[in-house]
Amino acid sequence: MERPDLAAAIDAAAEALVGVLDSAVSRHRLTVSPTQLRVLSLLSSRPETNVNRLAELLDVVPSSASRLCDRLEAIGLLRRVADPRDRREVRLEPTPAARALLGQVRARRHEAVRAVLDRMPVRGQQELLRALLAFGQAARAVPTSDTSPRSA
User: Engineering a disulfide at 78: which of 15, 38, 46, 72 sits with its beta carbon 3.0 to 4.6 angstroms away?
Assistant: First the structure.
């Protein structure tokens, strides 16, 4: 019997998961685009972020990141604040409205994932949990490209 391609199975499962997460959000009319939602999510987990760092995280030029921030600021989901350690530096902060929006999105996604999990047998859920924990641990052990030695 041929051994299944684990990497392909994980890739297919990841696509299915992304589909579940996307459909959970797309059924509700949001005031922001998927890119703007990603920006808010990135900023909420990285409180020291400025426009240049955001541009790096998004792999875009700083002017594009700045325009994204302008639009989020205009609809009340983002604030630019001076960094208390260096007043020349401007940090990007999600507003309380942005945090509430992210909480709603997260809750909808969790509901959608729970609905799929409920269709799985309990044993399969337990095996999935163990596998995901082991995968997460192995992924954290892999050096990132920033810390790996560069070849000449």
Answer: 72
